[in-house]
# Entry
Amino acid sequence: MKNIRRVQCVLIFSILALSILSGCASTEPSRFYTLSAIKDTGSVQRVPALEQRIIVGVGPVEIPDYLDRPQIATRDGANELKLSEFDRWAGSLREDIGRVLSENLSVLLAQNRVAVVPTYSGMSFDYRIIMNISRFDVMPDGNVALRAQWSIIEKDGRTVDVMRESAFTVAVQEKDYSGKVSAMSRALEMLSNDVADSLRAIAKRAKK
# Structure
């Protein structure tokens, strides 16, 4: 009788172990994403050269807390969010946005007299761009909605450009997460162009 019970216990434990191993083997691997900056093809519109070399700092850049997490968040409705456990940001989304804005502006301002760097670089700046992104969502209709408020401040603390607001809607061409992240990158490119337009106006004033 004891031998039968022992065999039964061994069988039960074996089945449980196989179930656990099978579950582990079928776990979906995580995928990691980063936003992409503008590629310098030589065809982008550039800000006119300034009379003297300037350094433009980007940051701080603020984003909503619900976006500042490893999982990529998408909206299932007006008040409902979906967090993907297997589609994640490769690092901090806030820092990635700041990096892309810096790289985009470096391309749009491409010239020897302008340098664009994140504010955490420790450098001193002639101008600093502060930004609050209030919305950066993949919507249920398959579009990316971006809304941001931003200002350009001189090194003495004087606001050169008062609070501006930029809002864009970009269609997601591919419905997978890679397509969603690509659409988010295109929205940041549009935002970068808005900021570059303001810097273009500053450049013109600096020449007078």
